[in-house]
Model the fold of this input.
Amino acid sequence: MDGRVSESTKSAKIADGKDAGICDSTTNVNDSEVNPSAIKEGRAEILLKSSSSHVFYNPVQEFNRDLSIAVLSVFAKEQPQSRKGLKRNRHGSTKDAAKATTDGSSTLVNSREDGISVFEALAATGLRSIRYALEVPGIREIVANDLSLQAVESIEDNVKHNKVERIVQTSHSDASLSMYLSKGENKLFDAVDLDPYGCPSRFLDATVQVLEEGGLALVTATDLAVLAGNSPETCYSKYGAVCLRSPACHEMALRIVLQCIESHANRYGKYIVPLLSISADFYVRVFVRIFTSPATCKQSTSKLSHVFQCVGCKCMTLHPLGVMNVRENKPPSYSLPRLPELSKCPHCDHSYQMGGPVWSGPLHDPSFISKLLELVESSSDKFNTSKRMLGMLSVAKNELLTPFFYTIDAVCSIVHCVSIPLITFRSALSNAGYKVSETHAAPNSVKTDAPAEVIWDIVRTWVKNGHPVSEKRIKESDVTKRILEAPVRNDIRFDFNADAGMDTEGLVRFQVNPAPYWGPGLRAKNNLVDGCATKEAKRKANQNKSKPAAVENVESNEVNKK
Done:
């Protein structure tokens, strides 16, 4: 999704070298020193042909690319070392990579023969691959693939322009087919980058097979409308899980994508270890390592859960697919869980909806995030979005492992009371003896290990302490009435608690709207034959939606002939 071959450049407006839609954190392409027919981001410069109306560049995704470069940089340092302790059988080309011998933006940073190999499945203009080659130390080889011939030609031009031919190779093929063929030749990759338009699931089977042991999968999903609960039936058909509409829908989107990757990996005796999982803007991005261990795969059922959400108060209850029983001096045993009594919600007496399964294990590796923070802090001038990276990573590092979170506004809206200040809510949880943290996925929200009963006790105490709810509201909503009439069973105090302090205050996490109608942009045109889509390809892409009109035209022609 870095630069798609598209019919429109409405959101980028770069036909004459000007970009009115780039947010403050992105590179200014209007600089007089910059080639007016090019886009510069990081150390890469992407050329635009004279017919640049077909080139699409989404500046909002620069945060995605910057974060990927940071993750890949840390991973590239660790992967060659971890190879020594893993049984591997690597075959395939090992092209000599040029070392840093020239000056300028085309300098290759510390590339080496024992470095990592990267496969970008949907490279488009090649911006991401070129930035990897120029900015990530320790890369031996990058294969930039795309199905569009026009895109591959653009990649080749940009690779030559940035002088990274010794590292970046182009591939004109279907992404999954290319990975399957590489696996057949026993040429595996250390990292695979999937950044499709929409759902990535159709590429995951090939991805988990073509990765080296301990390899890194960088996966983006931009179909948040599906993942966030608007279309549960579509979500199941694409990801194998049912989504639920809830205030924590963005975290649920992350957990659905992770369970989808885990399920594909389990089929081949592999399992995932999430390093970082980020929900940002209109997409989710996950970074996971994939290892092989049939024994560890048995633990997967204990790391996946169904989600039961009350239709009244929206409280969530997780129920694992399986239970792992740890035994001293013995291998763990596995059993099926017993279904809890969830016919009615104990807080509002409403029924439940069931979603999932979702990944209920950790979303992040705090030690890995610490290394990312060190890298970004030491080279903040390298990333245009470094402030936002520091903000998101700092919050993610300190997130509790407890799945899902509460948004204060949503909780208070259930009973129609005045919203509780965030620090007051956090202090009440800390004073009650529970852990609390922020989440990167939503503002004005908290993650906590406190049960829902404590959450509603806080709300009830808040209402009784001078923030009453009108009688009209109580009569109109049976949910409000049942929650407020229940007794307070916990000692709730709103005194400030230092443990509830927000260390991330002032950090940048959410950007303002960078341009009108910003988002993932338009889907790329499917140019298959000499830059022009065949009628058959167009018919399949349109799913025969134009067929009725075609029939009418045929009938009118027959009448004219008569």
Observations:
- Confidence is low (pLDDT under 50) at residues 3-34, 87-111, 526-533, 547-556.
